[in-house]
Amino acid sequence: LGIIGNVQQRTLEVLYDVGGGAVGFKAGAC
Amino acid sequence: GYDLQSYKVLHAGALKSATINCSQPKVTPSSGGVTVPLHNRHGPCSPVPSTKAPTLEEMLRRDQLRAAYITRKYSGVKGGAGDVEQSDVTVPTTLGTSLGTLEYLITVGIGSPAMTQTMLIDTGSDVSWVQCKPCSQCHTQADSLFDPSSSSTYSAFPCSSSACAQLRRSHQGNGCSSRSQCQYIVKYGDGSSGTGTYSSDKLVLGSSTVKNFQFGCSQSESGNLLKDQTDGLMGLGGGAQSLATQTAGTFGKAFSYCLPPTTGSPGFLTLGAATSGFVKTPMLRSSQVPAYYGVRLQAIRVGGKQLSIPTSVFSAGSIMDSGTIITRLPATAYSALSSAFKAGMKQYPPAQPMGIFDTCFDFSGQSSVSIPTVVLVFSGGVAVNLASDGIILGSCLAFAANSDDSS
User: Fold this and answer.
1) Active-site residue B321, yes or no?
2) Whole-number Cα distances in Å, B402 to B71, B230, B314
3) ipTM
4) Which of B67, B202, B306, B331 is deepest in the core (most CB within 10 A)?
5) How far is A28 from chain B (nearest CA, A)?
6) Mean pLDDT over residues B228-248, rounded?
């Protein structure tokens, strides 16, 4: 089991599309 | 062996907050969504700045507890334990709380009239809670305690309610009060816990209002839980009680956030489908541990070159967690990453390991540092090029290994 931690998520917009069954990433969001 | 496109350059001070800008980023959620500011709890933009922020070493020690707790939850499922919340977990409490790694805050309003509450966000749990008046064993907080008796829209769930039954099914019920009010309990990895009355009230999120938001009115806490100035915790997990699940009918079954890279810059949390521009990978879920959202990592690229890692190493999947600080990789994958990264950093002398980090460098005297790019490739070939903040922390490669590939 791996864990994607918050340091690696920083500045990305991380989308939890539960209805669509997907996780999304958008660079440079903040 | 690396071309210039495969390096990022960090300038001196880039790993610290050089500029403070707490203004809210401009974010456009799709129609029907809502966005609220999100800040690091320790920095100058925090609504409740820490009086004493933990050191990086201390945060990494806490982080190890949280990562171990998540791993144990799945170990419990694998072993057929079923009720993983009740599995026997022993963690040294002197190291702090697994929840202590949570770092990001939002400000909401609860009640009528709305009382401002500053809450940590957590994608790894479902039950939201705030400290309520009277609170016999609670930590100090910066905002006023939420006072149910001052809210005209507050109500406590009776034990016979469906919400209370749902809470019991998810192993977070804690019996009935003498007034037949539903009691909840939240337990965390270090043995800390919080209890109180499961309730509902109006929730104000930015310009939107959520009626009958279900949350825990905390009246007692034990252990090292959240010894800071925050007022509570907002659960964003995939279970029935989380904010994301509760507002799915209003904003849609989606949410997103951007975690700012420094304590002196702002981020945001959006409920509802975000705007376009995302690359997407399938979400993995476990009915046994509904709070967690999973993804499948399938490859890692360093300096533009894909590492030679068997895909089977990643077969267990990975949890996306807002509360864990450092990404944990299967041992084989971490070893390959560390070796490749060190090969791309030959110009810098190695430095002593620090806590869970074993790939560290001596940057003393450097005005700028060039580091290889690191790209995480998820199922479907979705490539995520990490920001420099996600590659180097302090002077170390900001990744850690699980003890072995099977854990």
Assistant:
1) yes
2) 9, 31, 12
3) 0.99
4) B67
5) 8
6) 92
